[in-house]
Amino acid sequence: MRRLLPALLFALALPAPAAAQGVKRCTDAQGNTVFTDRSCASVDAVPKGQPAPTPGAYAPGFAPRGCARTAEALLQGVRTALEARDVNRLASFYHWPGTSSARGVMDALEEIANRPLVAVELAYPARPAPFEPQREFGPDAAPEEEPAPAADPGPAPAAPRPIALDVQQMAGDRDAGSRSTRFQLHRNVGCWWLSL
Fold first, then answer.
1. pLDDT at 68 over 60
2. What is the CATH architecture assignment of 66-125+161-196?
C-alpha cells in the first residue's frame, strides 16, 4: 500500500493527454459555435471571442467545409480536388445516402482522382431546335408574308439546370489516352452533390 501512494501521486503530476485537456469553443465563418477537442483552425474556425473568419478565407491547401450551394461552386470544388489529386476532397462532394458499397465508390473515386485532369464542365440538357414552318420555293410558291409583330414574350425563361458534370482526363501520367467520366448531379438539403 505504501508503494501505491507514491505511484498515484506521480501519475497525478503527469500532464493530461490532449483529449482530456478540454473541449475548445470556436466560431466558424457563418458565426456558428463549433466545439472541438482539436485546434479551432483545424475546423476552419477561430477561438470564441475573436472575430469570425470571413467566408472563403481558408488556409491554402485546405477545402472549405460545408456543401456546394451552387452548381458552379461544385464545379470549382471538383476541379480543385482533381487538380490536387485528393480523393478525400472529391469524396466530400459525393452524394452518399443510399450507397450500397462505399468501398467500391471510394475505389472508383480514387482511380478518377489519380488521373491527370484535362477539363471539367457542367452538362446541360439539350435544347430543342426552334420550330420553323416549311417554306415552298419556286414559281408556284406563295409570296412570303410579312411576319406579325412579336407579342410580348413575357418573362425570360429560367436558365436550364445542369444535369451532369463531365470530367475529361488523361489515362495516366505516361499515357496520353483520354478517359471521360460523367457524374450525375443531385440537389439535396440546399446543396449540389455528385454520384456515379
1. yes
2. Roll (3.10)
